[in-house]
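Technical note accompanying the year-one report. For the benefit of new consortium partners, we illustrate the data format agreed upon in the data management plan: each record pairs a sequence with a structure-token string. No post-processing was applied to the example shown here.
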Amino acid sequence: MNKLYEEIEYLPEDTDDEYEYYEVDEDAARISLCTLGSLNWGAFRNPEDMRRAARILHRSLNNILDYQDFLSIQSKLSNDEIRPLGIGITNLAYWHAKRGLKYGEQDALAEVKSWMEHQAFYLTEASVELAEERGKCLSSDQTRYGQGKFPWELRAAGVNELTDFTAELPWEPLRERMIVSGVRNATVTAIAPVESSSVVINSTNGGEMPMSLITVKESKAGSLIQVVPEYNKLKAKYQLMWEQTDCVGYLKTMAVLAAYVDQSISTNTFYNPAHYEGRKVPATLIAKNLMLAHYWGLKTLYYSLINKQGSKSKSDGPLPDMLLEQIDFDDEESCESCKL
């Protein structure tokens, strides 16, 4: 009999008492797994072009759920009940650059909304189709999808100030099918960091701005140099992370994406101390970004990134060329599956 134990009380180190545990019955406990993928927005000319890729990726990940092995009964029960998938995006910085768009500006947010609506529609449509073909997941009726609700209908009120969320696609006919047939996958969207696989396809990772145009990336396999897509043509169009004086434009973009995401986004905040008096990031700026993220409906924040070179004073010597940044994408503290 497998048992899952949860620690429920932390005791200080100076006590001789033991930790207290309680048993969670295996039929009640659940462990969620990451089954992730991403659509490369930089590879498409129009949002309608994503439909075929979205359907293929969705079906491929869904098929993995049918034959993968599980290390615990709690994982299998979760898989059987909700069949969770998380399909996100990558190459968003390149997508902005090649269209001459800037993160957070009005025209860019309108385009981001349109593209993300298309992606969410195609993925939800694929989940409904699979439910019609193979049956809905066991807990479909207990989900918002099974009850006929879409994530964008439940978005935070604050995000409506950023762009117009008028529907462009035929959600009502899809809703009618969804209520009747349910969904095969209780979740279909999540935006992961896409750190290591971005190296393979040479994309800017996930929704992030690049730290630099040319990056040295380190892994257990060695070092490699990655150059942003279409460097010669677009190098003046890219927005670089460490050149930003705040995260507001980026957070606005993530919030618009989040309106269509049924799980969450690996949303980072980032600060370059070189932009601030005394080379210290103001606490008020950090607080403002946290409150704006909440107000616009971002469910979670991931890492808070600090440019260590930007915190050096002039007496420490000249700052290095911001064109070249060294990144370790084998950080053992990060989730391995979230890199893929």
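Partners are asked to follow this layout when depositing records. The chain is about 30% helix and 10% strand.
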